[in-house]
Amino acid sequence: MKKLFFSFLIILIISSIDAYSQVVWEEITTPNHKFFSVAVANNGEIFLGSSSANDTGGVYKSDNGGESWEFIGLEDRSIYSLSFNHEENLLAGVGGGIFLYNIEQGTWEKVFQPSGNTLAIEPGFNNTIFGGSSGVNRSSDDGYTWEKIENIPGLENCGVYGLSARSEDTIYLAATDHMAGGGVYRSIDGGDTWQYIGLEGHYAKAISLNSNGDIYSGCTGQHYYGWGGVYKLTSGSDTWDTLSYWPMIRAMVITQEDVIFCGFWTTSQAKGGVMHSEDDGETWVIDTIGMGNHGVTDLVMDNTERLYALAGYTNINLYRTSLPVSLEHQLELKPHIRTYCVPNPFSFRAMIYFGKPSNSSADLHLNIYSIDGKKMVTMALSRNEVVQEKILIERNNLTKGMYSYTISGTSFYCVGKFIIN
To answer: Quick one: which of 2, 4, 19 has its CA closest to 285?
Structure first.
């Protein structure tokens, strides 16, 4: 399986050398805890929910992009999900409860005590919010009071891991019963009643919709066969299409441009990454540059369309995309800057050429990554190199294989690849 994964990874990276949407990750330093959940407010504040199993639990907050962190409460509680209500106050799903954090006052209030762990919280329309635990819970007043939706056939023993609201009336959920499977359910009356719509026996963990109303679900396996993968139900159809039989999908985000991003792991949660598709799931590109080969357990997007991912198993790290994943947002930040390496492949040394920066600042950095996304080299560029728009690189301790590189600075970013033979 490991050999298959790396072969697939090589093929995907080679096929995407000229793609505009190559994704590069940067690691954000976090407290040394195991985190289950991440949320990013519209003002850029980052919130992390940690585990209490071998740790302190609770919620951590950064208001400076991850440079420093503050513990804000819920000590000794595992935080399985984080989201915001329509007032931008924070909702935290824990074992046997939902808490609301008033950001202005800095205080927590327990607002609901459902059965089971609250695994997902999803804002709907008109101050409605849905929570997933062992069944579905709903708030009609922006998260201050809650009710459990009773008597949903098939969900009695399921954990609800994913929720997505299409409209005021139409909501979807992804459910898992590790003893018997799971699947996808839909409500067309605002959550009052729910109907099973497919993926029987699948461990459905993520659900999302594109602009056409097509439904995508990510699974971590099947009760009978063991496969995970990505599945699609086209709007107006009742038949699910299989887009990928593997890997195991735990999180999913679809951008305004209908690019699908999935956080996955392979044979174990220790190995994996993020993959994306720009053609409705027909083909996929693996995005591990800067992240490495670590399984992703949570994936969210902020209001500038930058992605945040929690990756790892024993040690959980937080990563953020260096640029927005939306082409529209990228073009707002910078012109399209191209780069290339000559010769390519090379054995000992080569020259990297890049587009002209907006000024002659020497504040640019070159980072080189291995094929599995690990950072191998980082160096500041001299003023002379910036003015000449070229960098001499040497093989040194790099072994044979394919590498990715980025050149970045204020309002400047480009990415390329080279091969050492």
So the answer is: 19
